[in-house]
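Hi L.,

You mentioned the student needs an example of a multi-chain input paired with its predicted structure. This one should do, with 419 residues in total across all chains.
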Amino acid sequence: MIQHRDATSVLAGQETIRTWQEHLYKTVHQHPELGHQEVETAALVADALRGFGYDVHEKIGSTGVVGVLRNGDGPVVLTRADMDALPVEEVTGLPYASTDHATDRDGVVVPVMHACGHDVHVACLLGAASLLAETPDAWKGTYIALFQPAEELADGAEVMLDAGLADLIPKPDVALAQHVLPFPAGRLGVRPGPFLSSGDSMRVTVWGRGSHGSMPQLSVDPVVLASSIVMRLQTVVSREVAPGEFAVLTVGRVEAGSKSNIISDHAVLELNFRTFSESTRAAIVAAIHRIVEGECAAAGSPKPSTYETYDHYPVTDNDPDVAATLAAAFADHFGDSAFAIDRQSASEDFSEIPDALRVPYAYWGVGGIDPAQYAKAEASGTVVTDIPANHSPSFAPVIEPTLRTGTAAAVVAALAWLG
Ligand code: ZN
Ligand code: ZN
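Structure written out for the whole complex:
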């Protein structure tokens, strides 16, 4: 359990690091990089870690960076931050807003923005790494600061593992991570058990028979077939998942045809689904297959459908002991600002790292919204319309107290094992 004294002495340096930390945050925010392209960000991170005295491994997988700081015998704590940005055009109007563009995986030039706040995670973890390096007398053990590429592409953790991450670092006793979320800055929350849902995408291609629009009797119309599938899929969550059990199934994209008077020969549906339990996930996958096959049979589809799954995120399922340790440490340090956070329907690939390394983990949320702005929106019942959430082109975490809280959270969490 954390000793309050240790956190206080480590965090005494927070005012000293504030200037460079804020400068680094603004630099990363202004120059966001898409997944696996985080070259400048990774170089900045690696240079900083070396400056703090960490052993640094770079270019793990693609742009992954790990810093290891050994400080005597004791537990090994790994904390992870993700580094990638999104193809979103920033409209925050901030003086340090991004106007950068980049070429995405499909070769398309897109605007880039840190719309998910991963720049906050980078700045906070570097801040914590620096504070721990400056106060070796306050703790014992090994601190691993891991900077992951491409969380938004669902394969950043995977490429680091495939590149031999396990052989580069000592085996952690615990793995930790945090995300900035749209609640008041200065607050933070953790919970035991499932915290972030699993997320999966699936591309389904169904086949009809093409014909002239004036001769439907010669066709099997894939537009009608796809429409039946879309409607029937709406019953999966409403009729097949138990009330109270969380699930989302969205048909995000439907594509068929080229012209009003041509009946095309196929349709493509892109689905996304999220759950908190593996059994619900399996039931949804089975229902999708059953409905697609059933509707294809009913339509007289001439060719087997194809299914392609992609962008899989596992459930982020906080270890109860780790989460309890964190909750106690946060309550001790942050008082009422620490709370028991609700489950979130967002998804993350962080847990692939502790799962592969066979270590327990927990993941928590820190607020990023100006508390006064949030209170005003709450009072007028306009949180939904006035408070931009992650992935919005208006998402603009307030620098303080967001960085101070996220940095302190990473330090307090680490010291719960190392203090
Ligand atoms: Zn995101
Ligand atoms: Zn994110």
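You could point out the following to them. The longest helix spans residues 278-299. The mean pLDDT is 97.

Best wishes,
N.
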